[in-house]
Model the fold of this input.
Amino acid sequence: MSKLRQQGVEFLADVKLAYMETDGRISIITSDSKTTPVPEQKVALKSDLH
Done:
């Protein structure tokens, strides 16, 4: 919980996603985060290329 408080999160219920990064840091995405959605990418299957 101290890591959440260090990132400005007061209540656990405000956490939408939390990630443990490879360097040991924790990345927090809160439910009120203003993020830009990543557009979906169409994946071409090998069978589609023939």
In short: The chain is about 10% helix and 20% strand. Residues 1-32 form one domain. The mean pLDDT is 75.
